[in-house]
From TrEMBL:
Name used for this protein in its record: Glycosyl transferase family 1
Organism from which the protein derives: Candidatus Enterococcus lowellii
InterPro entries in the cross-refs: 6-hairpin_glycosidase_sf
Amino acid sequence: MNNVVSKSQTLNQLFETFETYKNAEIKTSIFILSYGKSASRCHVKEFYGRTLKQSWDKLASFYRSLSINIEYARIDLITEETKVTYEELLEIINSINRNNYVEFGLRLEGFKKRSFLKEEITANALLVPDKNHKIGQNKANLHFDTANYKNYVKRKYNVLDHTMNYFLTSDIYLFKTKAFFIDENQFYELKDYGFGNQFRIVEEDNFREMLDLVIHQGSNYLLDQLDEAGEFIYGYFPCYDRNIRNYNAIRHFSSIYALLEAGEFLDNQEMIEHSLQGLVWGFENLAEENDGDYFIKDQIGETIEYKLGAQAVAILASAKYTQITNDTRFFEKMKTLTRTIEKRFLTENDETIHVFDGHLAIKDKFRIIYYDGEALFSMLRAYELMKDEEIFAICKRLMTHFVANNYEKYHDHWLSYAVNEFLKHEQKDDYYIFGMKNALNRIDFMESRDTAYPTMLELLVAAAKMMLKLEVYDRRKEIISDEEFEAAKNRIFDVMSHRAYHEIVTGTMFPEFAMYFKAPYKIEYGFFARHDRFRMRIDDAEHFLSGLVNYRSLTFGSE
């Protein structure tokens, strides 16, 4: 629901709506109001009454008294709750597999009255993993962070809880709510999508509108991270507005690439011009000649690394800028980067070397599969622009090596990009089989994955484009029967659309969620990794935007 109404009309309409959600089994009537400005973490206040109307009247009176400068508000009504013992609470908390996957609010009745929405619990890090937790490898083993809890109670209730012992004697309730978000003169019904995500409703009727909103606002978010000089703000841990300090050359250039894709799609010249500045800054600050070759370097402290992936995405971003603008100023850099890849990162047996140290000694023969697909994809883009057959010969060597060595086992999104791109220039049965296996052999996992995991959408969009090529390939029936092809194509397209929807409702920092963090204005409409302390790095935005922009163009066209 999305309505434009006056403040009084908003309250009247919302109360009528909330009445329909009142659960007769819940004896108490509790409304929760979250309100604030984008400059700081919102305030949260509970309103109790013997009847729904009594609680609502208290809330409405308080809401009308708020400054007209309040930018947004959210109103929750507790509609479900379960009473638990303290021991049961600890067991439930401990059973949560991923960090921040809290799906309930928590309230206490007794010597002290305390209440916390699930958004308050996660955005203030009231529950944290144990020291042995490794993201994606083991269970979070959540427990209360006493200092964070006490600090938030002090901010919210203006009292200092010297101890949490009152949990032992309080009545403890886990609850769920029905909520609406008020943004200036509009209000949105919020939906609980599970895993802690309670955002505005995204459904078939408004999906395209929400997709466009997320792309437009998310692109502006990434643009805002790029300063005038061309360097990014690398990222945030938003609970306490903590900057992520390191810098990474791969993520710099790949984020420039994503910004260029968005700028092209949105026909936004400002994005394209700022992306140029990012390219210039990258080559001025992240590149160097060493022993006659041209490298993109990463440096942390005294440690220097030269990575195949960094070479690749510098080419990729340069090629994208050239394709959009017809400005060929980066041709020479693309050629020298490619020559260095062939000379330094590719063996006589067409195996790749992933990382050299600052003295050009091999540091890691293999580090991460991304680098291989990035290298092939980027050089194919360079070849398309420069028509340099020596570049295509390198690409052919890599493609042949990947197919012969069953690289489809990695199910990598960059390899999906690469094989689809390669098929523009040369088609073989083996390439199509490789591309289908890369997507289909892990598609059940991609369909059921609970995290936003944006690279999955990137993989599937590239695979979907490949299936459209296969559909008109003159040897298709030698590869796959008509029935099997239609089943495979439909499967890829269906899961692709599911992933696009899932990303939007599990990884987009809508204002109705951003308001609970310390500096909402910095993070609104960015993209986050919930299970990694809501991490918001530029590469998170990059992967979300690349997948969503390409999905939007493929599915709805570029109009």
